[in-house]
Specification:
alpha/beta, Rossmann fold, 14 strands, 35% helix, binds nicotinamide-adenine-dinucleotide, 9-stranded mixed β-sheet
């Protein structure tokens, strides 16, 4: 029986942001090792990254197509590939590996167009491959506890949702003199690399995803305004969203909200109580039962462990976990799923608790519908 996996990575060189987070997160449970990679568009940096991670030169590739081709025919081929490149490459890379029969873990947003997203979904299904999307925030223990509490009716029937994801790292680009430099140096601001949206595609998509993960509610229609402040793509967006069952909510995302760092805050209101989770204080969940005082639930505490999800915690109460652990929790389930599939063992709902290619398709639809609404200046139906 197989107990360990091997993986490859595309993107994630030594200077990149998220690839390193993936590698560290995968390392948490020591059930998979990095054996292959095409880490960079810069060959020298790609090689340096491979050396730093002791990836054999024979499995260090200049081109991801060559990597998929050569890995697919090896007896000890990689069990999955993690895609950590800018958005414009996700579709081509994912398609190339799926066609070669290799499982995929891909960064969000899944790709540029809905047609591409649905094609990837179809391909993963046809080939019976695992396709995970790293919507990071669904990996936090207290988000999973909140989801379980909502399922168990702790806040009753959902009546309102308020989610915000505010940052200020692009606030300098509000000054026209800085705009050229910003768009040249930051791929997220450039439609060629980022797609039709910057802010909604980069962080608004996380806000949409976490609400769906927590509540299971589908969007029926939305109205959105975007602000580009002279840049090619949006830097700020405000939305009203109508979900199924007439539930309404507001979503705000911004990269120019002075004083906000990585402020994802989600508030779910029901007719029996409310839940509030803040990404910058991820070990705590605020629960207020109707007529009662707010209770600050801590990850790792005995009362939190009365929920199944509370037992996913890795460190004792009061010892902060964080973003890398959230990623590790996603990978824990992805690795279990791949291992069980390879060993022909049955999968449980808990094993497959990670966001998959269908959630990736939803993410791409969300970006397109939000931009469509802001351009038309009106509500748009979600699934037409
Ligand atoms: N889930 C999250 O919380 C989260 C956080 C940050 C970024 N992201 C996503 O991760 C992706 C990467 O973002 P980042 O901030 O790490 O970007 P980055 O610019 O820091 O890194 C991009 C990496 O891709 C490599 N690359 C570019 N072209 C390549 C090619 N043709 N072949 C191989 N490698 C290539 C670059 O060399 C670099 O290593 C984006 O899609 C972004 O939306 C997700």
């Amino acid at each position: 029986m197989k107990t360990r996996l091997t993986y490859g990575m595309v993107g994630g060189d030594l200077k990149a942001f998220i690839g390193d987070v993936h590698r560290k997160a995968i390392g948490f449970d020591t059930r998979a090792i990095l054996v292959a990679g095409c880490f960079s568009s810069d060959e020298k940096l790609g090689k340096e990254t491979a050396e730093a991670y002791k990836v054999d030169p024979s499995r260090t590739y200049k081109d991801y197509r060559e990597m998929a081709e050569k890995e697919a025919v090896r007896e000890d081929k990689i069990d999955w590939v993690s895609i950590c490149t800018p958005n414009f490459l996700h579709y081509e890379i994912a398609k190339t590996f799926l066609e070669k029969g290799i499982n995929v873990v891909c960064e969000k947003p899944l790709c540029f167009t809905l047609e591409e997203a649905e094609e990837l979904e179809r391909l993963a299904k046809e080939k019976n491959l695992v396709f995970a999307i790293t919507y990071t925030y669904t990996g936090y223990t207290m988000v999973k506890v909140a989801r379980e509490m909502i399922k168990k009716g702790k806040i009753g029937k959902i009546i309102n949702i308020n989610v915000e994801y505010a940052q200020d790292w692009l606030v300098d680009s509000l000054n026209p003199e800085n705009q050229k430099a910003t768009s040249l140096s930051v791929w997220r601001s450039d439609p060629k690399y980022s797609g039709i949206s910057n802010c909604i595609g980069d962080i608004g998509t996380h806000a949409e995803n976490i609400v769906h993960y927590l509540t299971g509610l589908e969007i029926k229609k939305l109205v959105c305004t975007t602000d580009n402040y002279g840049m090619a793509l949006d830097l700020n967006a405000n939305m009203i969203i109508e979900y199924e069952n007439g539930v309404r909510g507001a979503l705000w995302c911004s990269q120019v909200a002075c004083s906000h760092l990585n402020g994802l805050v989600v508030r779910i209101y029901g007719d029996k109580g409310s839940l509030i989770w803040r990404q910058e204080h991820p070990d705590y969940l605020e629960y207020t039962p109707i007529g009662g005082a707010p209770e600050l639930m801590a990850r790792g505490a005995g009362y939190t462990k009365t929920y199944d999800a509370g037992n996913l915690s890795r460190l004792p109460v009061g010892h902060p976990e964080g973003l890398i652990v959230a990623f590790a929790n996603i990978y824990r389930n992805v690795i279990t799923t791949i291992l069980k599939k390879e060993n022909n063992e049955p999968l449980t709902e808990a094993d497959t608790d990670f966001q998959n290619v269908s959630n990736g398709v939803d993410g791409v639809r969300f970006i397109h519908k939000a931009i469509e609404s802001s351009q038309k200046g009106c509500w748009v139906n979600y699934k037409d």
